[in-house]
Amino acid sequence: MAREMENNESLLNRRSYLKTAGAIATAAGSAGFAAGSFTDSQTNSEQKSAVADGTPLEKMTWEIDRTWRDVLPKEFGLEETPAVPLYRWSMAAQPFRSAEEGAGNMIEKHQLKRTGIEQTIEAGTMTVSKSSGNFGAMGYEPRCHPVAPFFSGMLRVEESSGTPGTQGSVSNAGIGLIQDDNNYLWIGSNVADNKLQLFEKLTDETGTTHTNTVAFDTDYSLPSAPFDLYVIFQGDHISCLVREGNGEKDWKYYGDARIGYAGTTKPVCDFFDKPTWESFNPYIHTACSGGESVTLSDFELFHSYQIGVRGPVPVTHKNGAPLIKDEKLYCALTPGAVNHRGYQTIATIDLETFQIEMEAVLFAEAKTDYISNYVASHVIYDDTNDEFTIMWSGFGNGPNDPKQDDGFQRIWVTHTEENILNGTHYLEAVDSNLPRSNTVGNGGYHDFNGIYDENAEKWRAVYNSGGIDEVSIAETTDESLTSGWTVLDSYRDSANQIEGGRIVKVNGEYKVLYADPSMAGQMVSCEYPTVSTNRTGFDLEINTNDEAPHPSVVPVPYNGGTKYKLITMDETKIYDKAETSHGALWMYEAKTQADGYEFPKWTTTAFEN
Questions:
Q1: Are 484 and 461 part of one and the same domain?
Q2: Which of 29, 117, 264, 315 is the most buried (most CB within 10 A)?
Q3: pTM greater than 0.85
């Protein structure tokens, strides 16, 4: 895992670090990108595919090229997971001062329960202890604020002196969010109660303070030190995992919980609300009773994922040509999430070594609220205007309040001149207003994938138009992609979950693909621009988990010809416990190769980072 090795004041400048880092990366990346972009006009004949008389898509035989099967916790465990670091405190020196000692402190201390807590640092560890009396709690808050409420935290607990299950024996440690001494929550060990828990203390608008405790999975006992605590923050949800020992054991998924409610039916603190989120910060929680202690050695914050849910969706040019540089395919991926909570990343997949690297982190806001993403977005690069379009799939009930109804998805649009292939980006989005069959419940629309058809001189897109069992293809001449949509064709199957539509190019012709569990290979191709004409399955065997995978056929330039890669992801569950959590990623290659490349304009690098 990539780690930030230095602790210094500029790195920890509160709330500004991420935005500054993202802006620097964006500026540097944009300069290189624009310099390598194509802006010359080309005739339609030059735009056409060089492939002719190749093997039809429906007759291609596919074989596994690479499989990322056990996404969590084995092959893509945390140490191997692509990550964008936010902050690391290795506790090798005294990095904090009390508020009375003046400005310049790197770590702020919060006295959360009584007094008498002490800390000592030596040999890269910090020991928190209490010599006598009832238990006390102390919070340690670094000056690092993630730009959006989607991030991960990992804490290393080296020793814990308390006896599990013995009341009054307190030596707790956890990761949480804190505003002040009356507004905080933390996730971690409760030694006295012998459980891993979420604890919340939050104050509502009337000044009433609410407290609540949620115990995690009783199938697993309280972890024994040493152990790593890993918490994923996902807006109003958190997920909790633990790995005991020194890295040789597997991660255990303890469960997920809703945060911000503190035992009430309505949110006391709404973490999708931007002003609320900006008033809270990540922190380390510790608590000890008299004679007890807990020793910590490492605390890290990062944006990360264990591959994710859905996708990956290749980043493309307007005509559908995949964005490939140095044998690396650029893709949009949704981080691993629970209950549809997630954000977007841009990652590269090395087509030779299959190494996955996170390149960018993307967050979207509609009005004053964060959009929670589930399926991966389609990112489109317009080389003529040197700008990106992002078609997000996000949960929400409208542009003024995208979180009102978590059962409703809609497709959001962002146009930006920022080079979103690198760095951290915070973007605004508006509704695409695509036609849909239903307006409530799971009748939302999602899974957009589109091209600009140069022959028709129209944008065309396939998407789910009626929840998870209806797919449609629509077109518009509106360059903003927010109006004028007309549906060309729809296909509905209430008995099967059909989604994950893609428009791809094979043998010089566009095809429409989507997932269909009833078809061979659990995927289907259709004549473009329809979703119901000549529906044909795929000649491949795939061992899916809970749902059919979403297919993307990627033409890759190779030795003057075209290799066809099929990259897809199904949905799986962590130990069969977490709903909509992590996917298993598959890559196939067609046994036949075509002469000539599908997109001659991009047989060589079209941009530079």
A1: yes
A2: 315
A3: no
